Amino acid sequence: MVRYLLMASCLLAAGCFEQKGDRPGDPQGNGQKDDLAVYEAVFRYRLEKHSVAVKPADLQAYLSVNGKDPPAELMKQLRKDWPNLKPVSEEPKEKGLRIYVEDLKWESGTTAVLQAGYWFPTKFAGEGYFGDHHVTFEKGKWVVEKVTGETSS
Predict the structure, then answer these.
(1) Looking at residue 31, what is its pLDDT?
(2) Phi and psi angles of residue 37, each rounded to the nearest 5 degrees, phi first
(3) Residues 119-135: tens digit of each pLDDT
(4) Given pLDDT bands bounded at 50, 70 and 90, which one contains residue 8?
(5) Which of helix, strand or coil describes residue 27?
(6) What confidence tier does 59 reach under pLDDT thresholds 50, 70, 90?
(7) What phi-psi label fits residue 130: left (phi over 0), alpha (psi between -120 and 50 degrees) or beta?
(8) Partners of 98 in the beta sheet?
(9) Domain locations in the chain as residue ranges
(10) In this structure, is the dihedral angle defined by the CA atoms of residues 116, 65, 137 and 56, taken in order, positive or negative?
(11) For the packed helices 72-79 and 35-50, what is the interaxial angle rounded to 10 degrees?
């Protein structure tokens, strides 16, 4: 009987401990989701696409996370490479390039999917793009692995 109790308690203890990367959004196994790092990876991916025709220092864009201003810490990180970024609340009435991320969903400890896109005004109407950005944790950082469901107008 004692042997069975000992075996049961060992099995129970082994099943109760998570391993690194088991928790959604926690690849380091430190008990913290890293939403900001995922947002940063996707913003960098989108900004790099826009920076092809314009130098990063000249690119002006307004950023939003779930329809609101991004956290100050995120803006600070991104402004190191794109100094003219501003939060969406500072956008003059639909007159600038707006880049957004929203609807972050964790699939595992090292993968997430979120929608991201951009919108900008034109002479007659606005033009935009969005897609589902699949992000993975590789070699110590978050990277956009692929984009699916792309739509542009």
Answers:
(1) 37
(2) -65, -35
(3) 988 878 788 899 999 99
(4) very low
(5) coil
(6) confident
(7) beta
(8) 62, 119
(9) 21-152
(10) positive
(11) 40
pTM of the model as a whole: 0.78
**N-term to C-term CA, the chain:** 70
User: Within 13 A of 24's CA, how many CA atoms are on the CB side?
Assistant: 8
Count of residues for the chain?
Answer: 153
Distance CA 70, CA 40 (A): 10
Beta strands in the chain (DSSP E): 61-65, 85-87, 98-108, 111-121, 126-138, 141-152
CATH number attached to the domain at 21-152: 3.10.450
**What are the φ and ψ backbone dihedral angles of 91, each rounded to 5 degrees?**
-70, 130
Antiparallel, parallel or unpaired: β 98-108 and 61-65? parallel
Cα–Cα distance, 6 to 140 (Å, whole number): 39
CB-based contact 139:121 (threshold 8 Å): no
Neighbouring-strand partners of residue 141: 138
pLDDT tens string 71-102:
999 999 999 999 999 999 998 877 789 999 99
